[in-house]
Model the fold of this input.
Amino acid sequence: MDALLADAKATGTPVDGANGLLNQMTKAVLDRTLQVEMSDHLGYEHGAPEGRGSGNSRNGLTRKTVSTLSGPVQIEVPRDRNGTFEPTIVPKRARRLGNIDDMILSLYSRGMTTRDIEAHLLEIYGVNASRELISNITDVVVDEIKLWQSRPLDEVYPILYIDGIRVRIKDNGVVTTKVAYLAIGVDVDGRKHSLGCWIQDTEGAKFWAKVLTDLRNRGVRDILIACCDGLTGLPDAIRSIFPDTVVQTCVARHPQR
Done:
């Protein structure tokens, strides 16, 4: 490594960037690994006599560019005559390696727009990701959220906590404070689970009745104790969905002066 860094410094090669040392090393590792994968697929090394009459052989290279966290890298993917080679380190049709998708999701979760993410990836990493591509990646999150929101729940929760927490949310480019309403269930083994999270402008007994109805529709049949604040009508809303539930309202204690 010291020799590589010294050589890069002597020749004026930057460490990072599209033409930097990291990219050159990434290309060398990927190219060599692809050749090893091809040898494993064929069952013999390049130029080995065992390949004669084997029924399959190498058939040149295909160049393609993939995006990495150190910038775009042009690699050479070996081909076989039978077209049965399926590389693992760089799968067919893959154009992004490493944590590019994870980075897009991370930036998206922090409130950045698709335009901001596109500009950030191009400026910092030299990755040319279109807004359409970014939208397709972030749509996966939306699908996962919907699956999580509708997942089946346990039939019984000995304790259910329901309350709201104020959070800062970026909505249409403006950061505002909203209330996220949470339902936390304690299972029969004593473990806490987030059963759901809802963003609502106003809190009321009718809203919580809808939340509890959703929990029932997802498989909850009984709640032994429901802990909540003293919102007017909330205990009645709980009992309308789960008649046998004991409602325990929170008690706020003021510190002694």
